[in-house]
């Protein structure tokens, strides 16, 4: 099977390393030097510069560009792909459908371990492409199909960003070894060995059980874990996942569909000349756990507000998550029928 990969950055290179032995790869990018380096390293891989246009008609496309490049790159893609697999963090299926023509769409979140065939890759999208996407990306490691895009955004914050978190831990552990008296190379080797063995352990044993097994009363591990808890390391990692997830959602919300943009323009234009019809005149301050209704468009009295039926962002910050409105000082909400 032939796969066309658009993009030649770090994640694309990691995918190439995992996929090239099993699939016929065509790599399309803008950086000629990087493309030639790829062609030199992987002899059976075809490379092409994208130029002003590139035909994707009937192709299985893996989109590996940065989310902010979607608009620019999509203008160069001509024809209708057979399947579009996107690794763009936070970029929704709706945004992909508005930007690139394809019969099927799947969001994919691999990680850089793909270079060694050990990525934890999550997927979601069109069910018609589910089995094919699982088959393709199982070549770079484990795969897990998720039911919703929200779940994929959360998975992005864990498996996609996770290598950076673990790298931070590894770096800190090695530094700790050096501080205590180990030579740097020895500290790094011990840390690498720890991570190599931990994968199988965590697959087969609950994390809490591992901790219990290692911690003996008043032992070295108990003292070390207590220091980590004193430093709120657990809370820091929970917040890291939450922050990364929120950023993924933010990236998705920044990509309005054409329909959403048109609705905004029409409603705001009508409001500006005073001709809007208020369906509900109840403009009480938003209360905790108030619900949004998809049948309405919501306008706030805050002039810096960006409104969708799934998010309300104001100058006072985002005040709506998963269609639940949270009270913020002096914010009122008006409902308009879509």
Describe this structure in words.
This protein has 338 residues and is of the alpha/beta class. The protein has helices at 10-19, 32-41, 70-74, 93-99, 130-137, 149-160, 162-180, 184-204, 207-214, 220-230, 233-253, 258-272; strands spanning 2-6, 24-29, 46-49, 54-55, 60-63, 77-78, 81-86, 102-109, 119-125, 141-145, 290-291, 296-300, 306-308, 311-314, 317-318, 320-321, 324-325, 333-337. Helix 1 links the parallel strand 1 (2-6) and strand 2. Helix 6 packs across helix 11 and helix 7 packs across helix 8 (184-204). The radius of gyration is 24 Å and the shape is elongated.
Please provide a brief summary of the model.
43% of the residues lie in helices and 22% in strands. The chain has 338 residues and is α/β, with parallel strands linked by helices.
Keywords:
alpha/beta; 18 strands; 43% helix; ProC C-terminal domain-like fold; disordered C terminus; 3 domains; 338 residues; single chain; Rossmann fold
Query: What's the overall geometry?
Result: elongated
**Assembly classification:** single chain
**DSSP strand count:** 18
CATH architecture of the largest domain: 3-Layer(aba) Sandwich
Find the CATH topology of the largest domain. Rossmann fold
Task: Using the CA coordinates, give the radius of gyration.
Answer: 24 Å
Major beta sheet summary = 8 strands, mixed
Structural class: alpha/beta
Taken together, the total number of domains comes to 3
Q: Into which percent range does the helicity of residues fall?
A: 40-55%
Q: Tell me, what is the CATH class of the largest domain?
A: Alpha Beta
Strand fraction equals: 15-25%
The count of helical stretches stands at: 12
Looking at CATH, the homologous superfamily of the largest domain is NAD(P)-binding Rossmann-like Domain
């Amino acid at each position: 099977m032939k796969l066309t990969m658009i993009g030649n950055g770090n994640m694309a290179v990691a995918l190439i390393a995992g996929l090239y032995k099993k699939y016929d790869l065509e790599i399309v990018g803008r950086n000629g030097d990087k493309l030639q380096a790829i062609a030199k390293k992987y002899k059976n891989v075809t490379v092409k510069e994208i130029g002003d246009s590139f035909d994707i008609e009937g192709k299985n496309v893996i989109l590996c560009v940065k989310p902010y490049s979607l608009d620019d790159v999509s203008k160069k893609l001509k024809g209708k792909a057979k399947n579009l697999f996107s690794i763009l963090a936070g970029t929704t299926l709706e945004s992909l459908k508005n930007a690139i023509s394809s019969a099927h769409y799947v969001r994919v979140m691999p990680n850089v371990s793909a270079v060694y065939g050990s990525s934890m890759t999550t997927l979601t999208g069109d069910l018609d492409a589910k089995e094919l996407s699982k088959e393709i990306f199982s070549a770079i490691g484990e795969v897990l199909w998720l039911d919703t895009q929200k779940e994929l955004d959360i998975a992005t914050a864990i498996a996609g960003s996770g290598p950076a978190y673990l790298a931070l831990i590894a770096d800190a552990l090695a530094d700790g070894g050096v501080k205590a008296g180990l030579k740097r190379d020895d500290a790094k080797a011990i840390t690498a060995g720890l991570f190599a063995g931990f994968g199988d352990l965590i697959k087969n044993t609950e994390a809490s059980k591992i901790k219990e097994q290692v911690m003996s009363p008043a032992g070295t591990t108990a003292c070390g874990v207590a220091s980590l808890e004193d430093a709120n390391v657990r809370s820091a990692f929970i917040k890291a996942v939450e922050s990364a997830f929120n950023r993924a959602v933010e990236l998705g919300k920044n990509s309005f569909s054409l329909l959403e943009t048109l609705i905004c323009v029409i409603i705001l234009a009508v409001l500006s000349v005073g001709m809007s019809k208020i369906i509900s005149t109840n403009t009480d301050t938003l209360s905790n756990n108030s619900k949004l209704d998809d049948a309405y468009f919501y306008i706030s009295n805050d002039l810096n507000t960006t409104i969708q039926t799934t998010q309300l962002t104001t100058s006072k910050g985002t005040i709506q998550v998963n269609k639940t409105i949270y009270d913020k000082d002096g914010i009122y909400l008006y409902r308009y029928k879509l």
